Amino acid sequence: MEPQSPPSDTPHTPAAPPFRLRPAEPRDVAAIVGLIAELAAFEELTHLMRATPETLAPHLFGPRPVAEAVVAEVDGADGPGVVAFALFFTNFSTFLAQPGLYLEDLYVQPAHRGSGIGRALLSHLGALAVERGCGRFEWSVLDWNENAIRFYERMGATVMPDWRICRVTGPALAAFAAR
Description:
Layout: E1 20-23, H1 29-42, H2 53-61, E2 68-76, E3 79-93, E4 98-108, H3 117-131, E5 136-139, H4 146-155, H5 170-178
Parallel strand pairs: 4-5
Antiparallel strand pairs: 1-2, 2-3, 3-4
């Protein structure tokens, strides 16, 4: 029988993740717009992409912000770089009579997928929803994105089969409003 090492007095601390999450700051807007463009390309929706740093910044950091964002950054040769984001806002459930947190978009650059960033962003927002007294944390997923669907289900989300998104935008929105 081999001798065993005595127990260590130093508690085991897990290694720090290779990324940091933090609330987005005005200096991140250009990087977030770049990631939104990557997301639009991934979803083959670049024809709908209108976001620019100038159009996004007031909605995140202006006098009446309507959305928030969290970014993930990693250290690179040129210093820290933003490689992922989650953009979200508060909605409301009349059935629960409580606010909710709605995740509009979450994107992790392909080179950083599998490193835990997506899971950390979702967990962070879930904790934020609980902290803010939200009754729900919701988001949508494209029906063809099977990898994302499986990932969300593994995290504990329920993909709602009976609900469909209704949308009115652009000239149709102007016509809708004029009725």
